[in-house]
Amino acid sequence: MTVALDIRLLHTAEEMSQVESLQQAVWPGADVEIVPAHLLLTAAHNGGLVAGAWAGERLAGFVFSFLGLHETESARCLKHCSHQLGVHPDFRSAGVGYALKTHQREHVLRQGLELITWTYDPLLARNAQLNRVYSQLVRLHQAACFCGCAERCGTSVGMMKARLAGRGWNGGSGSAKA
Fold it and tell me: What CA–CA distance (Å, rounded) separates 121 from 51?
């Protein structure tokens, strides 16, 4: 299924409330994972990104990232930390996630930034596939494994959860050393 999407930056409190509601539909029962509307609004107005994918009048998905600092022994540079991407269950497998990640990449490039970092659960097939495909858009610099507490996630309650961290250079020289 492919759906016509209008992807745009979100700026208003009402839009952020819609994103908060969408998060509850995407991750039911995981209230601790829901980013509140007031924080989304603050990030969006201070260099972060909150973008929505609209299918007609319906919010089909969103992506949220914020500015961070990439530090090495020899250099510092700004980056975007991609925190969440959520697609309503009615719109999964319709290309919404990929369209949002592409929009995010273009937005970050317009900000003059070259680095985006993200984490994802490789045990969730749809999530892992999207991130494998997305990592082909950027020059994947490093992937590292680490674990987190699954009780907060709700998908693998009672066990440690493997996560992969991706770091992609969007363009330019990509010269900062990891």
Answer: 22
User: pLDDT tens for residues 23-80?
Assistant: 999 988 878 889 999 999 999 999 999 999 999 999 999 999 999 988 878 888 888 8
Q: Closest by alpha carbon to 62, among 116, 140, 5, 134? A: 5
How many residues belong to the chain?
178
Place of tokens 């029962």: 29
Give the domain range for residue 154.
6-169
Q: Which CATH number belongs to the domain containing residue 161 in this structure?
A: 3.40.630.30
This prediction has a pTM of 0.75
Answer yes or no: is 126 within a domain.
Answer: yes
177 belongs to a structural domain = no
- DSSP one-letter string for 52-105: EEEETTEEEEEEEEEEEEEE-SS-EEEEEEEEEEEE-GGGTTTTHHHHHHHHHH
Residue 176 maps to a domain:
no
Does residue 175 belong to any structural domain of this protein? Answer: no
Residues 12 and 2: beta-carbon distance below 8 Å: no
